[in-house]
Fold this sequence. Notes:
Mean pLDDT: 80
Largest sheet: none
Order of helices and strands: HHHHH
Number of strands: 0
Structural class: mainly alpha
Shape: extended
Low-confidence stretches: none
Distance between the termini: 46 Å
Radius of gyration: 18 Å
Number of domains: 1
Oligomer: single chain
Amino acid sequence: MLEGLMSKIVSVKLDESLFQRLDRLAKVRGVSKSSIIKKGIEMVTSKASDQGDEEFVKTINRALRYNRPISVKVDWDKITKELSETSPRWKTVEEAMDYTRRRI
C-alpha cells in the first residue's frame, strides 16, 4: 500500500520562534518541515505506546542492580530506514567531533 494514498492533512499553528527553528533545521537537514514534524510526532507517540518512561527506568535499574541482562526491544529496520532518510550534517566523524568540542 502506498503511504501517500493514506496520508491525512493536519494544520498546526506555531509561534514565530518555533517556526524559525523548524525552518532552519529543515534547511540544514535538507528535508521538508512536514517530515520533521512527522518524525517528532512518531517519536512522541511511540514513547507513549511503549513502556512508560518511569517504568522503563525502573526496569533498567533493577537489571543493573542484580547484574541481569537488560531486555530492550530494538526495531533495527526502523532505525535503518530513518538513517537512510536523513543526510549527515558533517562529512566525517572528525568534523562532528570538532563541532561538539567547540560547543563545550
